[in-house]
């Protein structure tokens, strides 16, 4: 089955609120839809990542730079396709953006393989389970938001089926954020997973102080605690100083970047994002490296693809989503057939490929390329 044509659609949806982490503000939910048309009539239907303002450029790369390399290739030649596309990074002025674009194409290829064989991608990758725990990304800094509001937010997340929440930290002092985590724990209850995410917001000293303050609250992991410029060494130091597992990897754009974190002894969990780092083909390499050294796998956002990957692996932990429609109008919204979520568990879609169906009226309304 050969590739005949490739199209990429950049979508950007303005948000009703501004959501803030330690070092960023989110004002839109953006993604790229990749449709690869084949000689048999099969067409992929996948969306990847949250590239925000870079969506149109990623779509351009896919259609102009990558499509000529894809036409005529067999959909079953995943590794050869990936290798051809990866060569574009060598001379690229913005390699992370090229890896984003490769991720879109690679994910679409895996979708087609699953569709051609009539099985979901989870089974293609190993099929370890067909359901997986799901947690929320929430606990953002918002104007006027009180500690009681944060506790109530956790209770609401639990009521809509979330197994836990990854709470944003790193934007205020360690002591203030520790108080926020205390209220989050109270709001969610003892059986609610609480993780914290500093988005590289702190020095080693502040991250260590914060970790020690929140150890009594049964924290599942502490994500990206240290500033970007020396993060591997910093996370390794924090990891030695606390009993809380350290999670990182979403800022890497290759499996080699994940290896850097493993070699440094910096992590207990890797949340490498297939939508940022070259797709499922590259993610498998990172997952295999982690399995060899006893490091567990998570994934940064993107439950529509992450559920299949993490469900396939025995060392996959849980998927993440934005259950607040103000934060993510795509899930659910533009994704019209999301799987059932109940009591903290998400069913992995059972249709062929990734089994994603999109609202094309919504796509047309928010298309930006």
Average pLDDT for all residues: 96
Quick one: CATH class of the largest domain?
Answer: Alpha Beta
Q: Could you state the order of secondary-structure elements as H and E?
A: EEEHHHHEHEHEHEHEHEHEHEHEEH
Strand runs, count: 13
Indicate the low-confidence ranges by residue numbers: none
**What's the number of structural domains?**
2
Query: Whole-number radius of gyration?
Result: 20 Å
Structural class, from helix and strand content?
alpha/beta
Q: Architecture of the largest domain, according to CATH?
A: Alpha-Beta Barrel
In terms of DSSP E residues, the strand content is 15-25%
> CATH superfamily of the largest domain, please?
Enolase-like C-terminal domain
How many helices? The count is 13
Oligomeric state of the chains? single chain
Helix content: 25-40%
CATH fold-level topology of the largest domain? TIM Barrel
Question: What distance lies between the first and last C-alpha atoms, to the nearest angstrom?
Answer: 29 Å
Task: Give the overall shape, derived from the CA principal axes.
Answer: globular
Largest sheet: 10 strands, mixed
Protein name: Mandelate racemase/muconate lactonizing protein
Cofactor: Mg(2+)
Pfam family, one: MR_MLE_N
GO biological process, one term: carbohydrate catabolic process
